[in-house]
Amino acid sequence: MTVLIVGDRISAVRAAKEKERLPTKEFEVIDGQGKYLIPGLWDMHAHTDGDDRVLRLFTAYGITGVRDMAGDAAELADARRRITSGELTGPRLVFSGPMLEGPPSQANDWTWIIHSPAEARRAIDRLVELRVDFIKVHDGLARESYFAIAAASKERGISFVGHVPASMTPAEASDLGQKSIEHLEFVPKSCHALFESVVGGAPRKLPSGCDPQSLKELLNRLDQNGTWLDPTIQSFRYWAPTQWSAIFSGFRELVPSIRQNRISILAGTDSSSVLEKKDDPPGTSLHDELALLVEAGFTPSEVLRAATLNPALFLGLSESLGTIEAGKTASVVLLEANPLQDISNTQRIVAVISEGRYLNRDVLERLRRENCRNCSAGSAN
After folding, report:
1. pLDDT in tens, the chain (381 residues)
2. Is the pTM here over 0.90, yes or no?
3. How far apart are CA 228 and CA 217, in angstroms?
4. Which residues contact 216 (CB under 8 A, 6 or more apart)?
5. CA-angle at 136, arms to 132 and 138, nearest 5°
6. 255: CB partners within 8 A, 6+ apart
7. I need a labelling partner for 66 at 20 to 30 A (CA). Which of 126, 287, 306, 312 fits?
8. Class of domain 40-323
9. Could you tell me which of 176, 184, 268 has the C-alpha nearest to residue 227?
């Protein structure tokens, strides 16, 4: 195929002809013969802090969009402004600003503590004034506060996503309209024994409601409500390394039901400065997530969709992003090999075009070298 890009838009996509000539005085020609073009990747759960270095790294690894899940709204808005203007090389950025959490947590730039339904409603009003893209809920919220967040978000026309606090069940959160559930919080907290190691291979003793049929019914309910899942499975290798094998095994057991119920998934990593210090670099972690999702039982096609078209659909941006079609935003990644044959081929990046800005292999390598603190030398090559 031949893909023509004018400005920040895809102008045409057509079958390549053997002797087709392009007006090379007007166009820069990138030879993609034998290579594979995919839509730009999204990391749908990251914490960037609006850090220039981190945002450059995401782009260097083919990530042209990021959903930032908690941070200082002013810093994130400024980073987005500089990316849009071309002052900063970085991905398209959507963000929640501070997340809403209950006591006993302490407030900071990332977190607002909600003590009552009245505080919850005021927080939603303030976040809307700050022009955040969505609301994030976290742990510790009382039922009444969670209900108030759900109602106020609906009234203000803004989606809410995040954790499922202990005061709620995943089914209740889904029924109230929580758009995405992060990590493994779609499994009731009473059932988290699914992700724990057992001594000597003994059978797990699970509470009522945690049997395969009950979990299948729960997943069907999430599907009926249109609730999305963002497992961030790779992050558990760093958050809970001693439990990692059991966590991944438990998740893999759930994947057939997730697929059978056709629940839409998103590819996210929980990337943050904390995980980077645990040797999980920004950017590379998304490629790890994709590989683990395939290992867990999703097909390469489903996983690629989770990082490309699904984010566009989830964010209401599918008219401009998520596929390679005329009229859409020119955010694409050129690969050496086919990711549908081997998902690890998403790492074999030749070039990135981010909203019309062309970054060749040399530029990408420089961005990695200058901004990555602990990446392996061969990453994404």
Report:
1. 999 999 999 999 998 875 556 666 778 889 999 999 999 999 999 999 999 999 999 999 999 999 999 999 999 999 999 999 999 999 999 999 999 999 988 888 899 999 999 999 999 999 999 999 999 999 999 999 999 999 999 999 999 999 999 999 999 999 999 999 999 999 999 998 889 876 666 666 778 889 889 999 999 999 999 999 999 999 999 999 999 999 999 999 999 999 999 999 999 999 999 999 999 999 999 999 999 999 999 999 999 999 999 999 999 999 999 999 999 999 999 999 999 999 999 999 999 999 999 999 999 999 999 998 876 544 455
2. yes
3. 16
4. 257, 260, 261
5. 155
6. 296, 297, 298
7. 126
8. alpha beta
9. 176
Matching residue, tokens 């992700």: 195
How many secondary structure helices (H) and strands (E) does the chain include?
Answer: 13, 15
| The residue type at 350 | V
Domain borders along the chain are: 40-323
Residue that the structure tokens 């596929």 belong to: 323
- Alpha carbons 253 and 97: distance in angstroms, whole number: 34
Nearest to 177 by CA among 187, 188, 164: 164
Six token digits for residue 243: 């439990």
Please state, in angstroms and rounded to a whole number, the distance separating the CA atoms of residues 169 and 165.
8
